[in-house]
Amino acid sequence: MTTMPYLDYVYKQQSQQNQELNLSADDYSLLTDLYQLTMAACYTGEGIEQRRASFELTVRRLPEGFGYLIAMGLTQALEYLAKFRFSLAQIAALQATGIFAQAGDRFWSLLADGKFTGDVWAVPEGTAVFANQPLLRVEAPLWQAQLVETYLLNTINYQTLIATKAARLRDIAGESATLLEFGTRRAFSPQGSLWAARAALAGGLDSTSNVLAALQLGQKPSGTMAHALVMALSAIEGTEEQAFSAFHRYFPGAPLLIDTYDTIAAAERLAEKVNSGEMQLTGVRLDSGDLITLSKQVRSLLPSVPIFVSGDLDEWEIARLKAAGAEIDGYGLGTRLVTGSPVNGVYKLVDIDGIPVMKQSSGKVTYPGRKQIFRSFSGGKVKADRLGLLGEIAVGEEALLQLVVQEGERVQPLESLETIRQRTAASVASLPQQTRRLDHPVAVEVEISEGLRVLTEETKKRTAEAQRTQR
Cα-flanking dihedrals φ and ψ of residue 121, to 5°? Predict the structure, then answer.
């Protein structure tokens, strides 16, 4: 295959400085780390690219202070696999780098003609999981299973983090509280903001301020106003009260942000209008100050008006506010929801051509073979998890990993956001209280089955013997 001209691909602008970076679904196959492609080229050169490989995506350890994770991101992972293709322009761009000069034509033909043809096993989105449990397994020709690693980790790691934080926020705030996702301006990227909004809603939040995310998900976006509107209209039209009136001319009864100047003075003026019947008001928002004291004072003035608060809130702060008796009906969650301790998911080879393999690096040991998570319950609560081999029988246990893609085709329908949200709530409710608490949570015990233990020892011995032989 000869090198194609750059034409419609990114390299047509390579002479420009400070080139803008854009991303579309057509680019996803190249949204990977270089070593995925170099390994695929090596596999092809060695003639093993079509060998059947199994990779499992697991989390080595839970983020500090977390007792569980809520699996999320599978929907976007499967969308990616369904569209996994390399265009001629993308191949030309790769060839132009010169990195693959020794790769043969068979490698380029593989990319040009290839698509994802493997199987995928995964825990349903919204399921509580723990360390060293596979959230997902890809079984496919080696080159395919290798190349998809980066994108799968990107979407599942990030969405799992956001969904878990959202589930914790809902658990602490309670079902009656309104929880709004306000994190778009703090998310790590425009794409990340869409994933964060989706994961937050699936994890238990009520709505998002991200208009694009809300509309794409069939939801109604939520929000109030910023201090800029109050300051601009107050300066031009005279007073904060006139600014509120102007906003209500276009959005009657909408929640108002009342802490731009004097929170209590603003609440007093609004109370006069509400009590006289002159104004309908669906809420007020506080974004600064002593939220405990202010919320109590505002409640005394506006007893029937919902009070929302925002400003770098997280589950610990909500717990503190509730414990102090703050009069708060809803919370806007932003920075601390869409950022924070990363989920360190990894994607490791566990079987190649039917041969179990494992990583034995210090602190990064993996279990060999294709595995299943077996969950047992007692009194409606999770009792224990057993990590075993795929073929083991689950007696009185629930097998969590399900076949979702077979030979490249989906075998289960797309789930609604509400279905995933309900599963998240049920998953969290099924966990022991010691696993759900914020301070020093204790994860559910994960047992290793006898079959997996034996396979692990056999794999270690086989690997050690092979190492001795090569010396």
Answer: -110, 140
**Which amino acid, residue 98?**
G
Taking only the tens place, the pLDDT of each residue in 144-173 is 999 999 999 999 999 999 999 999 999 999
| pLDDT score for 469 | 77
Dihedral angle over CA of 394, 454, 405, 76, nearest 10: 100
- In this prediction the pTM is 0.92
Separation between Cα atoms, residue 418 and residue 390, nearest integer Å: 30
H or E element, residue 170: helix 149-173
Closest CA to 140 of 124, 113, 121, 112: 121
Q: What is the CA radius of gyration of the chain?
A: 26
Nearby residues of 471 by Cβ (< 8 Å), 6 or more positions away: none
Residues 164, 71: contact at Cβ < 8 Å?
no
Confidence check: pLDDT of 11 > 80: no
The segment with the largest mean pLDDT, out of 15-29, 250-264, 454-468, is 250-264
Q: Name the pLDDT band for 43 (thresholds 50, 70, 90).
A: very high
Asked if residue 165 lies in contact with residue 340, where contact means CB atoms within 8 angstroms, the answer is yes
Q: Please give the Cα distance from 242 to 255 (Å, whole number).
A: 15
Task: Please calculate the CA angle 394-400-403 and round it to the nearest 5 degrees.
Answer: 105
Domains in the chain, CATH or no CATH each: 24-164+344-470 (3.20.140.10), 175-338 (3.20.20.70)
Give the separation between CA 301 and CA 285, rounded to whole angstroms: 14
Question: CA of 376: how far to CAs of 385, 431, 446, 453, in Å?
Answer: 6, 11, 11, 19
Residue-wise pLDDT tens digits, 310-341? 999 999 999 999 999 999 999 999 999 999 88
Distance CA 273, CA 333 (A): 30
Q: Are strands 398-399 and 381-389 parallel, antiparallel or unpaired?
A: unpaired
Q: Which residues, listed in sequence order, are joined to residue 399 by a DSSP beta bridge?
A: 374
Q: What is the number of other CB atoms lying within 10 angstroms of the CB of residue 50? A: 15
Query: What's the confidence (pLDDT) of residue 237?
Result: 79
